[in-house]
Amino acid sequence: xxxxxxxxxxxxxxxxxxxxxxxxxxxxxxxxxxxxxxxxxxxxxxxxxxxxxxxxxxxxxxxxxxxxxxxxxxxxxxxxxxxxxxxxxxxxxxxxxxxxxxxxxxxxxxxxxxxxxxxxxxxxxxxxxxxxxxxxxxxxxxxxxxxxxxxxxxxxxxxxxxxxxxxxxxxxxxxxxxxxxxxxxxxxxxxxxxxxxxxxxxxxxxxxxxxxxxxxxxxxxxxxxxxxxxxxxxxxxxxxxxxxxxxxxxxxxxxxxxxxxxxxxxxxxxxxxxxxxxxxxxxxxxxxxxxxxxxxxxxxxxxxxxxxxxxxxxxxxxxxxxxxxxxxxxxxxxxxxxxxxxxxxxxxxxxxxxxxxxxxxxxxxxxxxxxxxxxxxxxxxxxxxxxxxxxxxxxxxxxxxxxxxxxxxxxxxxxxxxxxxxxxxxxxxxxxxxxxxxxxxxxxxxxxxxxxxxxxxxxxxxxxxxxxxxxxxxxxxxxxxxxxxxxxxxxxxxxxxxxxxx
Length: 502
Description:
Distance between the termini: 66 Å
Mean pLDDT: 88
Low-confidence stretches: 30-57
Strand content: 5-15%
Radius of gyration: 28 Å
Largest sheet: 6 strands, antiparallel
């Protein structure tokens, strides 16, 4: 090696060592927060990981680091992946997969011993996607992922709509990597689903119809392309099915088994099936039964007769009798510390789900200014869902095995039990409507005002308990005296939000 070469290498090593010290100083505090600094993602990395950035090879190093992250995935060492996600996005802010996979990892991979997600990480996941989308504002990919997490994990359909609309206006990369193509059609499909989940059915149908029109043109251009035909057929199925559901729920109730066996066509404007057999009353027994249902609900009986169209499926209102069916009530016990045993009754079809959420009394979703994968370990936030079977629901939830997720360090908590028709299965909605138009309850029915223009109000069931830490530790019983009126709970949440915004 010549003296000049040696001199140049020494000159290169000096800034390299400074960069290593600086990078390590950034990483160690973050690692300490999440896993006690027992191991760093840099252990075992070869020199190219360090030399690369100094030689202008940030993207190559980012790729190698992401390969290292994949190793941690396979080992199940999920904590170690988080700082690598941060490093890769610093080195190469245009690696879409890192943002998408990192956010998915935060939302879905951190779980308790019963596979319930640690929902404290969801704000961080969404903030990571927001950062990634801001760094890649021309492509649809990250915006679509943010929409998907909003509709699938968070159940915030308004937020999902915003992201899917944004994604639908972006571009996709072609085979050569040029961002010139229109985004895939499934982006707008999800937009239609997000609108339907809000009860904005006409807008959802308009999206399906627009997609179907475009696909029909593509089929004409490529009649032998089976993938194009399959997309078109799927769109037509969704469009017509939602039209029929709207007809059944709000115009005349369809007998779906009869409809599947006999319907030959569907009116593409109204959703009315042909022939009409599926929605005509079949015999006097059915007429009498439906008339009695109206009388029990205290509603006027509409004109009905054999061979006449049925009333809409959402009439008369159905009393869900939440926790009062057959005289029963919800029972909440803690047989041992941090072990919740809950049982309840609800007069709905099998498969409907009751959401159970246990949270600190003063918890509110944090509004992060910047992405961070650290969470407040003192916060307790548990969410689960229980399916109704034969009018009953409930199970035991053991939170004692996961003290890092469920510290119960506060004094008071809310246990929130909800049935939200917008989140339930279509066959349940066939009786209750997209927004609960067909349900009522003598004790726990609440109505949520529309959040957006064209959105109907949401009618849902909610029961709230206020519990002390002593009750959760099993030293005091939970009774109906701990139930908080919904109006009081809503007022408390508004006051909490106002305090936070000051």
